[in-house]
Amino acid sequence: MLYMSGDNDLEEYIVKDIEHELAKTGSSKSIQVVALADRGPGYDQSRDDWQSTKLFHIENGMLADSKSAIADWGERNMGDKNTLIDFVTWSKNRYPAEHYALYFWGHGWNWHPGYVMEDDTDKDSLDMDELRQALPSIGFIDLVGYDGCNMASLEVDAMWHGHATAVTSSQEFVDWSGIDYSKIIEALTLYPDMTADQLAIASSRSASDEKTWFAVAVDDRIIPLFVSLNDLFSYMHSNLTNRFRAYKTAFGKAKGFTDAPLDKDLYDLVDNISHATDDISLKAKSNAVMNAVKQSVLDEHHAIEYKRAHGITISTFDGNKEYDSDFKYYSTIGFPNMNSWVDFLNSYKAQYH
Questions:
Q1: Are residues 153 and 246 in the same domain?
Q2: Does residue 242 sit in helix, strand or coil?
Q3: Residue 2 and residue 28: Cα distance in Å, rounded?
Q4: Is the alpha carbon torsion for 132, 134, 140, 145 positive or negative?
Q5: Which of 339, 315, 336, 335 is nearest to 112 (CA)?
């Protein structure tokens, strides 16, 4: 299932990805490929310049034109959780399967409101609080893929825990190539019994032209990461007053990403924290987190300049009031596995004032 939000400056790639990647192989007896694709005015006039939201059952060699669509849903808001629920429900009812993969195709920036699946016509986006509300209705998804910028984050992984087996995405800005669906569908056609892990790894490796890409387990295998993080952050919180400067230095050194000043690579951040002091307990707790990251990440690749990227970012905050509204939203999203991190950040921010 591809949820393709192209009612924005990505519109020209809707037709290209459907025709050159999805329809290169298309559906078969064992694999059904469906896409809900939304286009808008002003960016691309190809294939009869349709501008509504259309349902496609992808067939080999299919054109992405109005005649090929099996339904026209009119103007639908891709930033509305009900559009996502309707699409997944329709897909599961029409093409019941043993396993499901759902790819989000469009703009992204992990938990930040106003970016993910941005829809220009409706001036909306599928923000994390809204997507979280949709999860019970869409049911379990074996693999979740994000073909959008900066989506490989702890916050996203925490949201999908219990609702999916694995997630594949990039920590960095994604160029136009992104995930190569032709490679994924070809692999599934040959091996329709692929596990969620295998499909996540295949998806990650298909994005070989991107700066970073990863596959992460979000089922029970990620629990040790949550446990070790809460242990570390609680410990850091307990000695924050005396070690504020050391933690501030560690945060500053951690690997960041393009146009994402709040995002830091989790492994690299914790590695810097472990070297911030000579505290043996701090080092041990940091090592536990880093080992848990390694166990959670199923696949990773990165360009040379991203050697300190390990597959999972986490958002940090300081005393910059420019991000106060972001932190207010962040604090209320409700990460059940990250309470100690939010508590720490509240106190950490206060040290700046």
A1: no
A2: helix
A3: 16
A4: negative
A5: 315
Domain boundary pick from 221, 250, 272:
221
Angle between helices 128-138 and 81-94 (to 10 degrees): 20
* Strand order from edge to edge, sheet including 212-217: 71-72, 53-57, 34-39, 2-6, 101-105, 141-147, 164-169, 212-217, 297-302
- pTM here is 0.97
CB 169 within 8 A of CB 145: yes
Give the pLDDT mean for 343-348: 94
- Are 207 and 241 members of one domain? no
8 and 112 assigned to the same domain: yes
pLDDT tens, position by position, 71-95: 999 999 999 999 999 999 999 999 9
Distance from C-alpha of 225 to C-alpha of 351, rounded to nearest angstrom: 27
> pLDDT tens-digit profile of 282-294?
999 999 999 999 9
The two structure tokens encoding residue 11 = 């519109």
